[in-house]
Amino acid sequence: MNSRLEGVLPFAVMFTVECLESGLTTISKSAMSKGMNHYVFVFYSTALASLILLPSPFMSARPPLTFSVLWKFFLLSFIGITVMMNCAFTGVSYSSPTIAAAMSNIVPAFTFLLSVIFRMEKLDLRSSIGLIKILGTAVSISGALIVTLYNGPSIIALFSDEFSLLTSNGSGPSIPQSSNLFGATTDWALGGLFLAAASFSLSIWNVLQAATLKGYPSGITIVFFSCLFATIQCALVSLIAVGDTAAWELKLGIEYAAVVYSAVFGSVVFYNAETWCIGKKGPVFVSMFKPVGIAVSAFMSVIFLGDTLYLGSIIGAAIIVCGFYAVIWAQSKELRSQSEVDGEVLESSPLADSHHSPLLHHATERA
Predict the structure, then answer these.
(1) Any idea what DSSP says for residue 153?
(2) Is residue 118's pLDDT more than 50?
(3) How far apart are CA 80 and CA 203, in angstroms?
(4) What is the pLDDT of residues 214-229, one digit of tens each?
(5) Among 6, 123, 224, 232, which residue's Cβ finds the most Cβ atoms within 10 Å?
(6) Whole-angstrom Cα distance, residue 311 to residue 315?
(7) Any idea where the EamA domain is (predicted)?
(8) For residue 316, what are the contacts with CB-CB under 8 A and spacing of at least 6?
(9) pLDDT tens digits, residue range 315-357?
């Protein structure tokens, strides 16, 4: 029972994290639409998260802190929190939570490209698996471009006009078209670019976090110092970017709720859960759950924010998911093939027989 629970738990944790992250983008969009500055929002969020996590390093055993370790934490906080969160919430303020969820699916493509560039992953162009990886990466990026640059007709208007055509025997109004690839507004495209930058930052953070956990296995300590350093970094960014002192005053209601939700679920829960899952299953496993956020974010945006769901967002998200799972499938096939090769090598090794003989028997023979 325990082993079965351990196998299911990472899946349940990541599914919950994606749902909570969709809720975060929805409530933050609502708060920013009421006038809350996104730079100030990120600062207050990381500051509150640091206070919540303050006792954590003293409540569990951890390796000693050195200057090199603290420097790694500082780098993780800058890439994975300061840059990622500021770009993400800036992108959400210009676009919508649905677009944010769709753009997050290019994280595996960016992770794959970084792994190849830094020679962390081998790419064999002569094999079908290598070609599928390249094709899936290209498809994901093309889907992201469609989400960013193409709106298309509203889904609700599309279906309502189709219904009118059917009920009027073809004499009703024509379906509104927006076939221009560059039909998106400037704000929409700018939001997509910021969200792409956030996905790229998250990809770098996933790789660095996995490497850091190997040398410093205390995940909660890593998260605490990352939030602490990010608070200092975000304070400097906010002081430079926000000139209006009135922007630092939070209004009662949605703005306070957004800060608390972001600190608890967007920082404390999110980074601890992802760090734990990266340690258990690796960064690729974590990125597998990104498509979950698309459906949840779309539902929340339409219900709670009254956002319009466009055909371009649906098409682009579907293309991203197809490319995403192509890369994941190729990586799983590669890992399976490698494990089979390793198993054959182990079985053919002269030392393999020693694993099937009792240790006491060998000791007796030597005696």
Answers:
(1) S
(2) yes
(3) 9
(4) 888 888 888 899 999 9
(5) 224
(6) 6
(7) 22-141, 191-328
(8) 102, 143, 144, 145, 146, 147, 148, 150
(9) 877 887 787 777 777 767 776 776 666 565 545 555 445 444 4
Q: Cα separation of 222 and 106, whole Å? A: 25
Looking up tokens 């809720």, which residue turns up? Answer: 23
In the chain, what are the domain boundaries? 9-366
Give tens-digit pLDDT for 76-89.
999 988 999 899 88
Question: For residue 78, what is the DSSP state?
Answer: I
Rounded to two decimals, what is the model's pTM? 0.69
What does the block give as tokens for 269?
């829960």
Range list of H helices, the chain: 2-33, 38-53, 56-59, 67-77, 84-94, 97-103, 107-117, 128-149, 155-167, 186-215, 219-241, 254-261, 270-281, 283-287, 292-300, 311-348, 359-366
Please report, as a single letter, which amino acid is at residue 146.
I
Report DSSP letters for 157-177, one per residue.
HHHHHHHHHHHTTT-SPPPP-
C-alpha 143/C-alpha 251 separation (Å) is 38
- Contact residues for 185 (Cβ-Cβ < 8 A; gap 6+): 151
At 308, the amino acid letter reads T
What is the C-alpha to C-alpha distance for residues 306 and 299, in angstroms, rounded to an integer?
10
Whether residue 128 contacts residue 101, with contact meaning beta carbons closer than 8 Å, is answered with no
